[in-house]
Amino acid sequence: MEVKEKMGRLENEEYIINMGPQHPSTHGVLRLVVALKGEIVQRVEPHIGYIHRGIEKMCENLTYQQIIHLTDRMDYLSAHINNEAVCLTVEKALEIEVPERVKYIRTIMSELTRIQSHQLFWATFGMDLGGLTCFFYGLRDREKILDIFEESCGGRMIVSYNTPGGLMNDIHPNFQNRVKEFLKYFRGVIHEYDDLLTGNVIFQERSKGMGVMTKEEAIAWGLTGPTGRASGFSCDIRKHNPYSAYDKVTFREILYTEGDVFHRYLARMEEMRESMNIIDQLIDNIPEGPFTAKMKPVIKLPEGEYFQSVETARGELGVYIVSDGNKNPYRVKFRSPNFVNLAPLNLMARGSKIADLVAIGGSLDLIIPDIDR
Amino acid sequence: MKSVIEYFRGIFNGIKSLLVGMTVTGGYFFRPGTTLTQQYPDNRDTLVMFERFKGEVVMPHNEKNEHKCTGCGICEINCPNGSIEVIPATEVTEEGKKKRIIDKHIYHLGMCTFCGLCVKTCPSQALAFSQEFEHAVFDRTKLTKVLNQPGSKLMKGVE
Amino acid sequence: MEFSIYDFSSFTAWIDQSLRAAMSPGMAVAIEMLIIGVAILIFYAIVGLFLVYAERKVCALMQNRMGPNRVGPGGIFQTIADLVKLLFVELVPIKNADKILFSLAPYIVIIASFMAMGALPFAKGLHAIDLNIGVFYLMAVSSMGVVGVLLAGWASNNKYSLIGAMRIGAQIVSYEISVGMSLVTIVVLAGTMQLSEIVQAQQYGWFIFRGHIPALIAFVIFIVASTAETNRGPFDLAEAESELTAGFHTEYSGIRFAFFFLAEYINMFIVAAIATTVFFGGWMPFNVYGWEGFNKVMNFIPPFIWFLGKTGALIFLIMWFKWTFPRLRIDQLLTLEWKYFLPINIINVLIMALIVLLGWHW
Ligand code: SF4
Ligand code: SF4
Prior knowledge:
The complex is a heterotrimer.
Chain A lengths: L1 H11 L2 E5 L11 E7 L2 E8 L7 H5 L4 H8 L7 H16 L5 H29 L3 H22 L8 E2 L2 E2 L7 H24 L2 H7 L7 H7 L3 H6 L6 H4 L20 H23 L20 E9 L2 E9 L7 E5 L1 H6 L2 H5 L4 H10 L4 H5 L1
Antiparallel strand pairs in A: 1-2, 2-3, 4-5, 6-7, 7-8
Chain B lengths: L1 H28 L26 E3 L7 E2 L6 H5 L5 E9 L5 E11 L8 H5 L6 E3 L13 E3 L6 E2 L5
Parallel strand pairs in B: 2-7
Antiparallel strand pairs in B: 1-5, 3-4, 4-6
Chain C lengths: L8 H14 L2 H38 L15 H11 L10 H20 L15 H9 L2 H11 L3 H32 L4 H6 L6 H4 L1 H18 L11 H4 L9 H26 L12 H9 L2 H20 L7 H29 L4
Helix pairs in contact in C: 1-2, 2-12, 3-12, 4-5, 4-6, 4-12, 6-7, 7-10, 7-15, 10-12, 10-15, 12-14
The structure holds iron/sulfur cluster (2 copies).
């Protein structure tokens, strides 16, 4: 009798493991408290805040030019796009029109950022699933883009290239050549990504039908970026609310309806190709002109509230600035895509295996500093 | 019958996809010329960084030990994290006027985030980025540097 | 039947006789065992260290890297340097771990792989023990290592380790069947379980050629299933570093960790050696019936070179798998075994039996 009771208790007992904050598959200091039953995930509870630096609060004591360098450090893989978001908000508030040249360069840089971010996603996602070689191929190709950044901006990841009104400095004379060289190179090797992972039967078996989010759920949870679009939620800011030079290019919004891990992955693969097309359309037509609009050395936004959202590599980044007319903002709020994308992890992973949890987490392409800010 | 065909087709397509993957890795294995590794500490002599690379903030001096910093303190105001401290001094010029000059331009490399605002906003272009990237030291006080060299003077013609 | 110039049986027999002449039989056996033990130990260490180095070079080249290149020419002494480092690493005591089992586990793993080594025929006569149930013995011994892994996972008092251990338990129980069945296919063809005779039977045509398609299928299944059994990628679920940090050896450090690490590589060598022996003619040179000149040249190459060469090629294949494919999930792993390998295997054995009965093989 007693043994039976004990057995019953054992069966109902959950096996709690702490994934993280130091765990190879959480890509940073995210802590997931996972309740298991055997291999099956019963419940996932994300605990965040391990890399909270109070960026939003820090912004309140900085000038608008100084804010830029902090946004680099949120989603460090979309550093350039984050910079752009703040700049666009400030420019919108000041009602200044930046030169065409700036718009073109910003768009090209953003798309390069998107490609390198997706390359790193591919690399780490492959590694999460145990394909260690992917990691090196992804980083190998990403290196080429980082070189482009380094040549023009002076930084590889933390670029700080945008500034309200324009750019920190003009593009390097070699920039166009390098970008074209990269496009040629990358078109030649992107098939390896498909050969190695996309087509692989093990990979397909592991990713298809996993962590499904329907369109309704995606909208309800506010999933954006490739994660949302894989579920069929048309949410590409570049398309619906074009900024910079996105109204001058034609490109496809990648939409799928399945909403599983595989299609999230596929959406990113296709986005890389689309990004290359966008760059193709712009790279030869960068207009001549100044690389920054005339700006006062001290920027003071008129009193009011301003909002601008951009499409980062992971989804919609919204920048909300409240100004009381001083040189520092009164309040800054970032609507970061990763924080929102993390939220339904429990819903997606419940009932799947540990290995699936890793795959689902990987497919959301989370950047932890962006969640915690 | 159909499911049997599906079963075997599944097996064959699966094997084929695996072989395709193996050609990629095998292809690189049998072409050792494709390695990209840079032998870093060995190639130090030939390693060239991009000229805009933001290694650390320096104050270029010319051969007469002159710099362009007027001690205005704009870089200090613009630095987002207080990495720069400008300690000014006053000097009496030949005409007998008092003039603000730089005594010490202190730069905390350990705090700098390489945003580039100091270099960009300096009115006399006294600052620049060097391509030096080997910053590791055993004692962090070494990361605090005085950018103007001892005995250096303001360059002629810079106000 | 001509014999190759490299026949070690008379050499070993001579050692045996001179030992027996000099001392009592019991003493002679003891000394022989000592010699063999030391010889295998040295071979074990060399193979282990070399394979670690080889794996690092292979994966580096596949990934556009250089791999170890600092210690010695081409980094050849890198693994020795690593080993020395591991020897000096502290053996971290784990709180609430089962002390005895925790320290016992790596030895079980190592001993299991050591025992398998003894039965492998490296060349004619170069054979520690030629059991008449050689195939059976190898299978039995090579699956003993899992006990060590299970103990390691259980005794570490770590949740990740336990999951890893449970996974490998399920994995080995399933894949042992496949390994056995695919070897049975060849045993049916050879009509014996004695490894030396299996090798001898392949003088003119290795079993992989002689056995028609069933032998080929058996080989593919064997190599996949034994990769799974040795717990290597893409079947390294017990370690699965992206899921379970390091699986069953998460808590191990220093030389104990080195034992697990070494045993993994030795096991890889052993399965490749078994596959060589059973499917690729062991130490037999590549001979074609009737081509005397060609055969002479081939016979001139020493048999252990043949053996190590073939084994090396198979090891390379296993490494190639690991560095190309993503990892399977536990349920897929079991599906692969029970839904694909097992039925195919059973049919395969039947077909092979039919071929042998009808005398279609040559
Ligand atoms: S680069 Fe930025 S952080 Fe560094 S000293 Fe200059 S202004 Fe300060
Ligand atoms: S470096 Fe430039 S900005 Fe800074 S104090 Fe000197 S002159 Fe002024």
